[in-house]
Records
---
Amino acid sequence: MLNSLQKSNKVTIKIYENSNPWIFFILTLSISWFFWMWIILSGWNVWKVPGIIFGALGLFGPTFAEIFLISKSNNKERWKDYWHRVFSFKQIGKKWFLIIIIIFPLIHAIITLASLITGTHLPSFETAKNLISNPWKILPFAIFVLLFGPIPEELGWRGYALDGLQTKYNALVSSFILGTVWSFWHIPLFFIKGTFQYEQLKFGTLDFWLYILGPIIISILFTWIYNNTNRSTLSAILFHFTINFTGELIPLTERGRIYSLILITLLSIVIVITMDPKTLAEKAIKISEI
């Protein structure tokens, strides 16, 4: 079933019709979980060798999977379009840059302000204090955040899988499918020593379920941004970076994470209501000229 994403394109969609997101999902889970299982079974700490090596290799599962699948297709047009979407800043535009940058800092700021007003317990803000005391660490830390999450994940999730899904389902359904797999992909991290999931959230707790629900809802925002920036993978990378970087600088307590999920859900509902659920876009989506 071809949706409006395809029907509105001047450029042939044939290079995307053969994309199989389900094969991508199987490959991604197999690659990532293979490396992460070694860490779990061996009891390694993810921040010590060899745990950090296997952890990084697992993190790049989505990237390895999409590189393999696109290379296997032997389609030069696909590669050209793929890399254009990764590096083109022009596709995003000033309005969407602002949206990407402001959403999560604003959500965290609102929750923190509300906590101050109500006298609710606040986190320690250790990372923010450390960076303020040592400004030279800001750039290396930002690069670290970018490499350990946004780049290796989004090159696959939005850079490959989302297009394949949207040639078969509408944008909303595609978001839920991708978000569910993305959420499921994280589960081994709850059993790896040294990860945020293992040390702070804990498997089976309320925080665990909030974390599992998060990617499913947030995927709606990703698709909304991705489709409104002419399928910019770079926009997804930057949005993912903003989410992670904000979480490091303005961390949330368990109650704060509940409020955050509520606000994200409300925002997602507004987007679905005000946009066409078939595309979650303001205008017809066009594949970049190739």
---
Amino acid sequence: MIAMPEMDLLPATRRALLHRLATAQAEGRAPSLVGAVLRDGAPVWTEGRGLVDGAPPTADTQYRIGSLTKTFVAVLVLRLRDEGRLDLADTLGAHLPQAPAATAGLTLAQLLAHTGGIAAETPPPWWERTDGGVRPEPADILEPEPVKHPAGRRFHYSNPGYALLGALVEQLRGAPLGQVLHEEILAPLGMTRTSLLPQAPHAHGWAVHPWADVLLPEPATDTGRMAPAGQLWSTVQDLSRFGAFLAAGDPAVLAEATLTEMRTPVAPPDGPAWDAGYGLGLMLKQDGGRQLAGHTGSMPGFLCTLWVSPADRLGAIALANTTTGLAVGGLAADLLRITAEHEPRIPDPWRPLDTYDPALLELTGPWYWGPGAVAVRLRPGGDLELGPLTGPGRAARLKAQPDGTWLGLDGYYAGETLRVIRDASGTVTHLDLGSFVFTREPYGDPDVTPGGLDPHGWRPGPA
């Protein structure tokens, strides 16, 4: 129904994707629904169901994307951080002293991760269905006592929190949010059909009656100061470009390392199910052992989800024009999973390193933390990888630093320093990783083992 290149997806895969999308549209009673799958940064399957203005929706049909807008705002904040214009540890008041909650000590990182503890919504009336002129100033988006929880203690989703981040961007850039978005994200990524207000062709927002197959139009409001929380409209085609960026970065917008930082869990969700969390402007989800990052979105009349799985080089999008009744977050995750299971990623060919530092081979091979066996491997780019030889255990990638140490990049040792310790002759005696000592033999050297060793050494068990 949509003229998009299929790029050699197998017929069985396309059939399974169509069945999942069609079932969701029919059972969810969505006036229209568009789904897409990305692979290696490009759309490989797109399908529309239902009608928009009497015709099936296309990859160029705009839908309101709701809270996915927050991820765009987070990217703008991280750009300012990478430029040295701010620090995520800065308080909101350091940059917006007149803003509501400015004296509460909330940090920018807490606002990005929804751990600032401020109110989830604005004072009445409900901002999503009322014109932004109702609250013309930043002071109007929060009630007099906006702090609901101590900052940093728990995840508490806050729409006004992102409105404050949007105001911060405008203040530091000296330009309206729409202009900054266009110049710093949309234009560099080639997103020509993403906008703050709808542009034809676009879907119309509908509420579907819970007990009858009849519709009620939803207002397409300009939310004004609350725009950073959920104002944007976009298309499958544009969001495919944004999804490719979220998976791999783009130096014109953000470095891949910063995207990795955004995808790092900061806060778990409230409640007992810890299969999801939140990073810096990105929702995080565990789905069948697969780690997804992206965001859901909803505004009256619209639902949206974008997920990416960088490890699988896959992404999926679902856009619908209904207020409730359709779990697009699960739908998009299913589209990604179906593709991954039907067509597992083909690994890149193994190739030997083009160049390497021969001295690094001295660090590779088996080491022992006490009696626990680990291995150090040399990876492309000169990184080291430490992990257990067998079974579960702590693992980490380590990157060389100018002073001769190594910095842990992930896992338990993220941010920790590995030091290579040598004797007077220059021979490596042991590794020190955050005070943990690794030797070539199990508890092999009493002089470097914290606490020393029993003078009688290893022995048989008691009779």
